[in-house]
Amino acid sequence: MNRGSLLMRLPDSRKRRRARKRGGFFARLLRLLWRVALLALLWLIGVAIYIAYIGQRDDAAAADAIIVLGAAAYDARPSPVFEERIRHGVALYRRGLAPNLIFTGGYGGQGARFAESQVGRRYAMREGVPARAILIETTSRNTRENLDEAAALMRARTLRSAIVVSDPLHMSRALRLCEEIGIACVGSPTPTTRYRSFATRWRFLLNEVYFFHRDLFVPPA
Q: 83 and 33 share a domain?
């Protein structure tokens, strides 16, 4: 092989080596991204399993109050979701687990005549719960505010412990917020949740997985 052809082949060899290096780099990067994606997926699955697990536990025990978290109301009628929460709260009261029922939830929309908590109180009174056993707040708009206002009612009456009532897939977030706010509480999910179909339960679960991570990184307003 003459000197000229050797010189011509050297740049080609360097190009091939550089191409192999680039190919190796991108292959390593893809493997790393795949591992990160797999770990993220496993994490999300773990969070979803944890949320579902907490929602299956009923730890109802003697307490000072039963906090029923608000949900939509249609004028003077509770939505099916809220009705199941109210019914479960009333059932716990009838079992003698707490002497006070706290209904939470403000006015759901412009022009609403009744706050969610007022709707809950009316329903409970029709079920035989005496008015003196029911406390309400009418300003909250979300779960954190529900529990903030419930905590204020409890402090004003020196109530120290509570059973929190909500839907099963909502219970993990409710208990986490109770701990942050300083309410000594246990959870009692509704056994008759209206989120029964696969589609509704799946959407609810995805929503709660989102809030689980949002609450980790976004400070409360």
A: no
Domain annotation covers residue 173: yes
Of 180, 149, 169, the C-alpha closest to 67 is 149
pLDDT digits (tens, 9 = 90+) for 102-158: 999 999 777 789 999 999 999 999 999 999 999 999 999 999 999 999 999 999 999
Distance CA 42, CA 152 (A): 39
Based on the fold, state whether residues 163 and 144 are members of the same structural domain. Answer: yes
Q: How many domains does the chain have?
A: 2
What's the DSSP call for residue 133? G
Q: What is the dihedral of CA 153, 158, 162, 166, to 10 degrees?
A: 0
Contact between residue 162 and residue 184 where contact means Cβ atoms under 8 Å apart: yes
